[in-house]
Design a protein that fits this description.
With 200 residues, the chain is an alpha+beta fold. 18% of the residues lie in helices and 43% in strands. The strands form 2 sheets. The protein has a 6-stranded mixed sheet. It has a 4-stranded antiparallel sheet with strand order 2-3-4-5.
């Protein structure tokens, strides 16, 4: 019951975007190594966008993203429930802009959980890979905040048809009123997307 009440409140209170929006893309498949210090086993810097530096903290099996210069470590602590043995990101970041504004207000990145194949006869891992989860992560951006970015929504792209368009709508509706560290991250499946009126 509490879940339904939260959804209803979001439908009532969520602001609708007045300005027209558009997307710009950058890539995160050609990054340069940086000194990780104590942050992670590996640290990489990728193509920046409109003043937002993009960093990836990675280990043997997982990866996390940060945007901008503020609260990088706090951003690396954010992650959806992915599952699988490995996490893959991207390969692109979709930056959402309001028309006429240089700085993006949100971005969208695809996170995948990957399970590697296993040969029971040999006891060895194989090259075969299976995608076990496919999540679009919508983040709010503000380079003036103590933390430049935070996750707003996790959208199950494997379950929800038209997940990319829904991610755009979520960014426009919910990012303007989202408060990093205070607002609750939306975890969206087919049922909750329908409850919010995002799909028929």
């Amino acid at each position: 019951m509490r879940f339904l009440i939260i959804i209803a409140a979001l439908v009532i209170l969520a602001p609708l975007a007045d300005a027209q929006t558009h997307s710009q893309l950058s890539r995160i498949d050609a990054c340069e190594d940086r000194d990780p210090g104590d942050i992670a086993p590996f640290l990489m810097e990728c193509e920046s966008h409109a003043g937002y530096r993009v960093m990836i903290a990675a280990s043997e099996h997982s990866a996390r993203l940060s945007y901008g210069d503020n609260g990088v470590v706090e951003q690396f602590e954010q992650s959806p429930e992915i599952g699988g043995l490995f996490t893959t990101l991207g390969p692109v970041i979709e930056w959402r802009h309001r028309d006429g504004e240089a700085a993006p207000f949100a971005n969208i990145v695809r996170w995948r959980g990957i399970m590697q194949g296993y040969d029971e006869d040999t006891g060895q891992m194989t090259a075969e890979e299976t995608v076990v989860s496919n999540i679009l992560v919508v983040s709010a951006l503000d380079n003036e905040d103590a933390v430049s970015a935070c996750h707003v929504a996790y959208i199950d792209a494997a379950e929800i048809p038209g997940a990319n368009e829904i991610a755009h709508e979520v960014a426009e509706r919910y990012v303007p009123g989202f408060r990093c560290g205070i607002s609750e991250i939306m975890v969206m499946d087919l049922f909750s997307a329908a409850g919010l009126g995002l799909i028929d």
